[in-house]
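Run Glycosyltransferase family 39 protein through structure prediction, thanks.
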Amino acid sequence: MFSTSCSRHCVFKFRALTIFLLAFLFFAWGTGNTSLWDIDEPIYAQSLKDQIAEHNLIVPIYNARLLPDKPALNYWLMWTGVKMLGMNSWGLRIGSALVGALLIFYLILALKRLYGESVAVITGLITATALHSTVIFRSATPDPLLILLTTIALLSYLRGYMYLEIRSRELHISYAAMALATLDKGPIGFLLPGLIVVLFLLLRQQLSFLWREGRLVTGIPLFLLIVLPWYLAVGIETHWVWDRLFIFQQNIGRFNKSMQGHRGPWVYYVISTFLGMLPWSIFLPQIFHDLWQNRRCFLQEQAITLFLLIWAGTWIAFFTLSATKLPNYVWEAYPPLFILIAVWFDKFRRESRLPRRRGLIFSSSVLFIIGLALSIFATWFLPISEPKLPSMVMIGFPYMFTAAVAVVLFWKQYWTSAWIVLGIGSFALSALLVFVYLPPVDYLKPSQTMGKKIAALQGNAPYRLASWDWFQPNFLFYAGRGDMPIQHLQSLTELPDVLGIHPLYLVCPQAQTPAVLASIPNAYNHKNIMTAYEIYSHEYITLIQIKRRTYGINQKNEQSTSKLLPSR
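Sure, done. The structure for Glycosyltransferase family 39 protein is below.
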């Protein structure tokens, strides 16, 4: 008996490890094929360059100023990747790919006891193949770490609540994960997980669990021991300016008013969550219908399901109230929904209940319509707003094809085969995006090419950067060296003051080139290095080299020499 149990446990761990490795390969697959995507990725990447050049990984800076956007943990993750693979897309993004694989690995291991092996594995697989997973775990941003750490914090707390024999260990893991999440993205790392736990205990009329069994006496010191050293260090080094800007501008400010134009209606996150979880979100209406039918059992008999619903609902509701809206903000609500989907699937796999065949066919039809809409949008509407994009008519084909096949399989009651087909379709869409569509789009981001041309012209010689009427953080990252700043001109009358003994590389819209050239003093000459279309501004951008004239001095020297030579 013991030998059989041990063997099964080893097989399960081997399966979990195999899925972890496959997930890592999937997320790392083609990660370095494209340049960084404005605006977030290059801001964090350039900030890391600045910190490395300053030999200071404590204070986030950007363009010679404090950068109070995010704390330090993600910079340290990117720094690790850069040390291994270099300061490029591969090095900056590989950490996020690893974090995504670790999320799936943790879900599988943590859910085994809560739901069993099959639900754990299914959850890992659908998490890996969701549409937004392809995006989020290929980006050099703090979001992947926050997703992993909040998932660990909440699931560990749930496991500690459910099982007395592992309570102390799991609750301390939860406190440590919330601390690391706070080091990654700030107060949201403990405020929302804490709110979810409190709401759950209130609904179950067990709030006293917090101070009786919640390990607050040891958990809070553990949390502070992890969080305080860096926050105190950055505060002391910046005279608490960074801390004040981070709290009042980047946290309270983002909640009260939208920043960088990131706003949306109250249904924003309902729509973005549904789209981000494709193809699996098409089954959520049926799942919620079944849960509603059993709603009277939640409070006392289905504690785990109640916790998952509070987790997803609270996270989405909180950011719905926020003025600043981005799809990444609610990814942390996906894991509980993925778990509910996996539980629903597993019921059919074990044939403990038969699914409504019409409902499954309707869900597959919705996916087919979404795929069709994607292809129509890419073929007819997208070229109107962005004519330089390559033809993307096939973008919806993976969903359309797999949905059609799934309809047939559901009709014949081949449930497992239908879900496998949907997973294959999601994988195909990811491959299509990464290897077919994104590389041509990358050519419409000229910053990397501009940086290469500047490097070829300058070698190791010093130079400076400036911009007029156009700027993307990608340009500074690829065109600059180390902590080199860029001068953003407010008026072309400032241009003579910026010029000096070293060449200046100025970037501006092509339409502004005549005005820039007219503002260059006679003591300087200029050269148009390149002009290229830029996808973000929908206009042509020109890179100009401006440097001090030297031919006049040489000419005078030649004339003086000729006067000294005897005439023939």
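The first helix runs from residue 2 to 28.
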